[in-house]
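Here is one record:
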Amino acid sequence: MTDSLITAPLKRLTTRAPGLRLSTDPGDMEHYGRDWTRRWTPAPLAVALPSSVEEVQMIMRWANEEGVAVVPSGGRTGLSGGAVAANGELVLSLERMNRVLDFNAVDRTLTVQAGIPLEAVHNAAREHGLAYPVDFGARGSCSIGGNIATNAGGIRVIRYGNTREWIAGLAVVTGKGDLLELNRGLIKNSSGYDLRQLMIGSEGTLGIVVEATLRLTDPPPPTNVMLLALPSFEMLMKVFAAFRERLGLEAFEFFTDRALHHVLAHGAQKPFDEVHPYYVVTEFAVGDEQLEAAAMAAFEHCLEQGLVSDGVISQSDAQAAQLWRLREGITESLARWRPYKNDVSVRISAMPAFLAQTQALLGREYPQFDVVWFGHIGDGNLHINVLKPEGMDDGEFVGHCEQVTKLLAQALERHGGSISAEHGIGLVKKPYLLGTRSEAEVEVMRGIRRVLDPNGVLNPGKLFDP
């Protein structure tokens, strides 16, 4: 820790927790003080890296006494500014709390510390012949605590649901520094409010998840992957309906020709000789001749109806990985452009009308920008990435994008949708929360927050204002 940057409150923290790793190194503060939005200049007081629940509790009690705000930090792969520390907050990083604590073969649960990466959870479950089915492209860097804080979904929601379906129990340190043990792995528990579910999706504003008991399941059945080329946007939901009717879908992901362009420029392998306007990557259960025949029948039906123009089915695990890279590599391939991102959702039944309206809106309002679409069509979740042109001022770019987001939020409200499907509200989407939640709901949220964090030290300014 840089001596010249040690303030009196930090000295009192190190006295209270002498073993706590604390950093005021400028590089560390920049690294830990931001997430993937890159829209705010990091300016934390310091970075604390506790290694135990007790140290987390000590930090929160110190924060209340000193009046210092605390920003919980996981893998910082968020896209809504939820982990940003730009106003002298203490960043509380859980990355050192990254161990598997217990496996219970009878209950089929895995208890882990919150800082463990999602990919490590996948590997630990696999070692016991089981699976933790929540999955997305950032699996190697995102943390379980962050996944829980945003109720992350990902690419297999269509089969397995969101994170909250797989949380059997939580240990949470509240804004006051109290430790809550929530649900304790029970399947049935009707003894009052389920505070575990309240914490899931709360974006670090009610408490800091320090441990989680995760439900595991059987490994997925043998699957195959198919890449489909679509001639027009209007065909998308019809193709989804045809495949869902005939197959046991594990995933159904769409992306545009612009998304493919950027992924190919980033090193992926070109799937077709021709360029098509829209693509779908779908994964489905196979394992016997009947299921494989059903997959081909679904493709042939779509081809005969003019719903798809071309397609390729994986013949090996390596080819399946290549096809998935076309979808999972999108976010990484766009990073250099610092895109403005919208992450929205509507009911699946409302998706056709919403997609048509949104396509027209973006075509009209963003003619000068490269707009990259992709999404989890099977669960009504659409990602819209607007790329900043070279040389354009950041403020001018964000200002224009936010004007369009207001129109998008209005369209979502008309269709009963949400401005945030899986990235959270954070700082970015806070102005649009009332399009998804009523004034009465938000006031209830404020009341809950005041009970668990009466001094307002935990992730202030995120989700909604006091």
